[in-house]
């Protein structure tokens, strides 16, 4: 696994700075409320997918319209909340990126939580599902694909946010 | 009293390894779930296309989305590694500063 040498090299570089710098915070603080809200909205999403698992007709779309808007609104609010947390030692991340770049490493560390992109992807997926539902209805196959995509992205967001609880 | 460099190196290695071993196990579990879900997504798209359950424009959207999801998987891995690096860094700082404190008898601000 290439991740282990990457961690090792980054740590080796950082050790030189350890004595001078002391403890650092390279990622946002764990947000218990955000994590709890994510698990709640995840349950709502799965409940909604269950209700449309056999497919939908566009004539019944008005019955679902409000649910789509509520879910999309919640996800976008959580993405905003996730991205608004400060990273105290942002400058050290820049130093690590400088080292990785100088060694032709293609992976650089971002100063934005990855859960933001995952949540934005969920929001975009739900918007596409809403449009499709309104225009032509959803086949059971399409619902399965939308659902698996949302579950996959939510796993990314939940795993990262839980990992921040260090 | 002098600082035992060999002991300090052993302590640093042990501390760093404990953090890395724990986190890599979690990251490996996440990776396996993601790879399985990405493969399942590809299978669902292919099946729906063959069965004509989705029209061409929707199939294109799903295929583009699959790329985005794979990219976000990589981004999440990188985010998890950042947290691991932070944890190792802070654990090593505590070991080094603790060793210096024991030798000098001077309290250092290890949590700073």
The level of helicity of chain A is: over 70%
Query: For the residues shown, what is the average pLDDT of chain A?
Result: 88
Structural category of chain A is mainly alpha
Quote the distance from N terminus to C terminus of chain B: 26 Å
Q: Identify the overall geometry of chain A.
A: elongated
Uncertain spans of chain A? none
Rg of chain B over CA atoms, rounded to whole Å, is 24 Å
Strand content of chain A: under 5%
Order of helices and strands of chain B: HH
Shape of chain B: rod-shaped
Describe this structure in words.
The complex is a heterodimer of chains A (166) and B (112). By secondary structure, chain A is mostly helical. Chain A has one domain (3-163). Chain A is built from six helices and no strands. Chain A is elongated and about 60 Å long. Chain B has one domain (5-104). Chain B contains two helices and no strands. The interface between A and B is large, with 51 and 55 residues.
Give the helices and strands, then pairings:
The complex is a heterodimer of chains A (166) and B (112).
Chain A: H1 3-21, H2 32-51, H3 61-83, H4 90-102, H5 114-136, H6 140-163
Chain B: H1 5-50, H2 56-104
Helix pairs in contact in B: 1-2
Features of this protein?
heterodimer, A: mainly alpha, elongated, B: 112 residues, mainly alpha, 0% strand, rod-shaped
Summarize this, please?
The complex is a heterodimer of chains A (166) and B (112). With 166 residues, chain A is an all-alpha fold. Chain A is built from six helices and no strands.
């Amino acid at each position: 696994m290439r991740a282990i040498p990457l961690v090792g090299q980054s740590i080796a570089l950082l050790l030189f700075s350890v004595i001078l710098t002391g403890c650092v915070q390279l990622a946002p603080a764990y947000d218990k409320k955000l994590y709890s809200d994510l698990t709640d909205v995840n349950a709502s999403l799965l409940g909604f997918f269950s209700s449309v698992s056999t497919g939908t007709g566009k004539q019944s779309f008005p019955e679902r319209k409000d649910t789509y808007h509520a879910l999309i609104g919640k996800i976008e609010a959580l993405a905003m909340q996730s991205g608004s947390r400060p990273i105290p030692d942002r400058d050290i991340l820049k130093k690590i990126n400088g080292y990785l770049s100088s060694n032709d490493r293609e992976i650089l560390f971002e100063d934005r939580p990855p859960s933001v992109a995952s949540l934005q992807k969920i929001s975009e997926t739900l918007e596409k599902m809403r449009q499709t539902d309104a225009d032509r209805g959803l086949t059971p196959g399409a619902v399965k694909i939308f659902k698996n995509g949302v579950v996959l992205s939510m796993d990314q967001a939940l795993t990262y946010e839980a990992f921040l609880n260090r | 009293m002098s600082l035992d460099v060999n002991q300090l190196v052993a302590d640093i290695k042990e501390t760093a390894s404990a953090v890395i071993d724990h986190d890599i196990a979690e990251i490996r579990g996440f990776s396996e779930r993601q790879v399985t879900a990405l493969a399942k997504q590809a299978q669902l798209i292919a099946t729906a296309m063959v069965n004509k359950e989705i029209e061409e424009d929707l199939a294109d959207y799903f295929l583009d989305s699959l790329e985005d999801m794979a990219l976000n998987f990589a981004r999440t891995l990188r985010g998890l590694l950042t947290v691991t690096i932070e944890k190792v860094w802070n654990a090593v700082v505590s070991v080094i500063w603790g060793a210096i404190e024991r030798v000098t008898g001077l309290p250092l601000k290890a949590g700073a």
